[in-house]
Amino acid sequence: MTWRKIGFIFKPDEKNEWMMSHAQLPIVDQIGDDTFKVYFGTRDRFNRTVATYIEVQADHPQVVLYVHKRPVLGLGELGCFDDSGAMPSWVVTHEGIKYMYYIGWNVGTAVPYRNAIGVAISEDGGRNFHRRYTGPIMDRTPSEPYFCATPCVIIEKCLWRMWYQSCVKWEVYGGKPEPYYHIKYAESLDGFQWNQRGRVCIDFKSSNEVGITRPSVIKENGIYKMWYSYRGLADYRTKKEQSYRIGYAESRDGLQWIRKDELAGIDLSESGWDSEMIAYPYVFKHRGLMHMFYNGNGFGRSGFGYAVWVEG
């Protein structure tokens, strides 16, 4: 069993000041049998992230039908948790309303940045989003004192379930502070107020592994399946041996997970846009076939592409 890479889809052409580089954390919203709306985070000329989308052909996602002309979610107010960036991480639809869970960025001093999780809603089919709150819905707590980010949210009956990145510490390496983070779990009854108990789902498997992020969860035949990114510590920005790879885990209840990274079924290409890094998977089903949209080199600087799951 493996993912068969189909190819590259999109990266910014550097013609718009608000969309100069990167197409990070692709999120697929199936808006019909024939079209996917793909949300992602893009960076302006000041390296600040905002959210926008493209539309692609569902059966041939390499065919881009439309590129949105402006952000659907811009920067937060000055001094708020998202005044330096608002990066989309997940979109769910509930009772006709779309909920965009996003990562708010602040620039730091002792450390480079601080993240928290916000939510915006759309009542026009995802063409525009507005913040539900000016502040974050999940942030630092007494037991999680650093930051949280990259939520994945699914709704099961009346329960909203979230898997998210949680920073456990910063350490100086090579003269620079570097974050350590893994994946935790939270619950909600309305998608806004979250019970953040610090339950760890995917933990580090070795002393060299320090970053686990962007969970993507589906439930199939009674089994929860999660794809995510993991990386090493030393020179992960420049050495492909240490850069992000895509991992895989399974669970019976969504709480206790068994890592099975050897079954992830995808790795670096020999050359091209995803030959140094593969990261930030988003997995979903369309017409009975499993798809994965993911980022390549440079944390999304090279854009995103997709693969399909092949049995046997």
Summarize this structure as a short list of keywords or feature phrases:
four-stranded antiparallel sheet, mainly beta, single chain, Tachylectin-2, Chain A, 312 residues, globular
What does this structure look like?
Strands 1-20-19-18 form a four-stranded antiparallel β-sheet, with no helix packed on it. A four-stranded antiparallel β-sheet has the order 2-3-4-5, with no helix packed on it. The protein has one domain (2-310): Glycosyl hydrolase domain, family 43 (Tachylectin-2, Chain A), CATH 2.115.10.20. 0% of the residues lie in helices and 56% in strands. With 312 residues, it is mostly beta strands. The radius of gyration is 18 Å and the shape is globular.
Q: Could you give a short description of this structure?
A:
The protein is 0% helix and 56% strand.
Helix content: under 10%
| Protein structure class | mainly beta
**CATH domain class:** Mainly Beta
Indicate the CATH topology.
Tachylectin-2, Chain A
Taking the sheet with the most strands, its summary is: 4 strands, antiparallel
Shape by Cα distribution:
globular
Number-wise, the strands total 20
The end-to-end distance, rounded to whole angstroms, is 5 Å
Strand order of the largest sheet: 1-20-19-18
The assigned CATH architecture is 5 Propeller
Q: Please tally the helical runs, counting DSSP H or I stretches of 4 or more residues.
A: 0
Q: CATH superfamily name?
A: Glycosyl hydrolase domain, family 43
